[in-house]
C-alpha cells in the first residue's frame, strides 16, 4: 500500500483574533480589567493587551503531501513560531510518510529540548502535530475523531466562558465561567467586589446553573483560599488556574483547603505528559485543562489523557475549538467541553476562532451533534479573506 509522503511544510502568521483569541479590539470583555499576574503593576491592570498578551498572533502551519492533499492547523505563536517551523522542525517532516506522526513528534520534542519543553516551542510543535492529523484525515477521508479510535458519544455539551453567564444560560449552556476581575493587589475591597459579582450572577441564574471563576494564574495561596471559601455560599463549582502554573505545591494545598464539593482546575498553561504528571501525581486538581494547541497537540494529549484517567481526573480541554471537539468526542473522561464566547459583549455565539476558519462548528442550545464533526481531518478550511504572511522560508 503506498502512503503519501510530505512534500512541503509552510508557516504563516495571521493577526486579529482567531487562535490568538486575546488579540481583540477595544471594548471586548476579554480585555476588561481582568486579574492577571501583572496586576501588581497598576499601569498594566486595566487591559491585558497593555502588557502584550496579544503580542504573538496566530501561527498557521500548512503541510502539503505528495498526493496533493494539504493539512493545516492554527495556534498561538506568530512570527517566532513560524521561524521555528521553517528553520528547525520542517526537516523532520519533509520526505516522511504522512503516517509518521509519532516519530515526528518525538524528533520535534527532543531536538528542541535545549530551548523548549513548554510555552512557545510546545505551541509550535502542537501546531505542526495538529496539521499532521488534519492531513492524515484528509488523505484517509476520515474525521480526526475516527482516527483517534472513534467517538464515545454522539453529542458534546458545553459550558461557556465569558462575562455573561446569565446570557449563556439562556443560550442553553450547562454553566458559565467568569473572568475574575480583581486580584490580590486590589486588596480586601477587590475581594469583596469579586464575591459580589458572583453573588449577583448566582441570583440571576438560580441555584443549579454551574458558575466558575477563571483566575488566569493571578492569585497567591492565601487569597485563593479565601476566595474559594467566600465563594462557597454562592455555589462556585470550580476555581480555575488560581496560581502560577509552576506552583504545583500551592495547587496541592489549595485543593486541600478548598471547601468540600468545590473543584480545583488548572493546566491550560501546562504542557506535555511530564508537566501533567506533576499536576496529577501531586494531587493538584480535579480537572486538567490542556489546550490542544499548546500542550503538545493531539499526539501528546492522548498520553496526557491516559495518565489523567489512571488518576481519576477529568480532562476538559481549554478552548482550542475543533481541535478539542474531535478529542472530547472520543474520551469517556472528557464529559463536557469549553466554549469561549468571542462576541465582544459575550451576548451571542460566534465561532471560537472567528474569523480564521471556515466551517468551524458552534454549539446550538449548548450542544453539538457529532455529525457536525464528520468531515475529513478537522473539517475546517482557512478563510481566504484572512491575510496570510510567510515571514520565513527554508
Ligand atoms: C477568561 C480568561 O481570563 C482567559 O482569557 C480564557 C481562559 O483562561 C479560559 O477560557 O479558560
Ligand atoms: Mg482558564
UniProtKB/TrEMBL annotation:
Its cofactor is Mg(2+). The record marks 338 as: Transition state stabilizer. This is L-rhamnonate dehydratase. The keyword Iron does not apply. Homooctamer; tetramer of dimers. GO terms for biological process: amino acid catabolic process; carbohydrate catabolic process. Mg(2+) binds at residues 214, 240, 268. Its EC number is 4.2.1.90. It catalyses: L-rhamnonate = 2-dehydro-3-deoxy-L-rhamnonate + H2O. Catalyzes the dehydration of L-rhamnonate to 2-keto-3-deoxy-L-rhamnonate (KDR). Reaction proceeds via a syn dehydration. GO terms for molecular function: L-rhamnonate dehydratase activity; magnesium ion binding. The gene is rhmD. Belongs to the mandelate racemase/muconate lactonizing enzyme family. RhamD subfamily.
Amino acid at each position: 500500500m503506498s502512503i503519501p509522503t510530505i512534500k512541503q511544510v509552510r508557516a504563516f502568521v495571521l493577526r486579529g483574533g482567531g487562535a490568538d483569541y486575546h488579540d481583540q479590539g477595544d471594548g471586548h470583555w476579554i480585555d476588561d480589567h481582568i486579574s492577571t499576574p501583572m496586576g501588581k503593576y497598576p499601569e498594566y491592570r486595566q487591559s491585558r493587551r497593555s502588557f502584550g498578551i496579544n503580542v504573538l498572533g496566530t501561527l498557521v502551519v500548512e503541510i502539503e503531501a505528495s498526493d496533493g492533499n494539504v493539512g493545516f492547523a492554527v495556534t498561538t505563536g506568530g512570527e517566532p513560531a513560524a521561524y521555528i517551523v521553517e528553520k528547525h522542525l520542517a526537516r523532520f517532516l519533509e520526505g516522511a510518510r504522512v503516517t509518521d506522526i509519532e516519530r515526528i513528534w518525538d524528533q520535534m520534542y527532543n531536538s528542541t529540548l535545549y530551548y523548549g519543553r513548554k510555552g512557545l516551542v510546545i505551541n509550535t510543535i502542537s501546531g505542526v502535530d495538529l496539521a499532521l492529523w488534519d492531513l492524515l484525515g484528509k488523505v484517509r477521508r476520515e474525521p480526526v475523531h475516527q482516527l483517534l479510535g472513534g467517538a464515545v458519544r454522539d453529542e458534546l455539551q458545553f459550558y461557556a466562558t465569558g462575562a455573561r453567564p446569565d446570557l449563556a444560560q439562556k443560550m442553553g449552556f450547562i454553566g458559565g465561567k467568569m473572568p475574575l476581575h480583581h486580584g490580590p493587589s486590589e486588596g480586601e475591597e477587590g475581594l469583596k467586589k469579586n464575591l459580589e459579582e458572583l453573588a449577583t450572577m448566582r441570583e440571576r441564574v438560580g441555584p443549579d446553573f454551574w458558575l466558575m471563576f477563571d483566575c488566569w494564574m493571578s492569585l497567591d495561596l492565601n487569597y485563593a483560599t479565601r476566595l474559594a471559601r467566600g465563594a462557597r455560599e454562592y455555589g462556585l463549582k470550580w476555581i480555575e488556574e488560581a496560581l502560577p502554573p509552576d506552583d504545583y505545591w500551592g495547587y496541592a494545598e489549595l485543593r486541600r483547603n478548598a471547601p468540600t464539593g468545590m473543584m480545583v482546575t488548572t493546566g491550560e498553561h501546562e504542557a506535555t505528559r511530564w508537566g501533567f504528571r506533576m499536576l496529577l501525581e501531586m494531587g493538584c486538581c480535579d480537572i486538567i485543562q490542556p489546550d490542544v494547541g499548546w500542550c503538545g497537540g493531539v499526539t501528546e494529549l492522548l498520553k496526557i489523557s491516559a495518565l489523567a484517567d489512571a488518576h481519576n481526573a477529568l480532562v476538559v480541554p481549554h478552548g482550542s475549538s475543533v481541535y478539542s471537539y474531535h478529542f472530547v468526542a472520543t474520551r469517556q473522561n472528557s464529559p463536557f467541553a469549553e466554549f469561549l464566547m468571542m462576541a465582544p459583549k459575550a451576548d451571542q455565539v460566534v465561532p471560537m476562532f472567528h474569523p480564521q476558519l471556515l466551517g468551524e462548528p458552534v454549539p446550538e442550545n449548548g450542544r453539538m451533534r457529532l455529525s457536525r464533526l464528520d468531515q475529513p481531518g478537522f473539517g475546517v478550511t482557512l478563510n481566504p479573506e484572512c491575510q496570510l504572511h510567510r515571514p520565513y522560508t527554508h
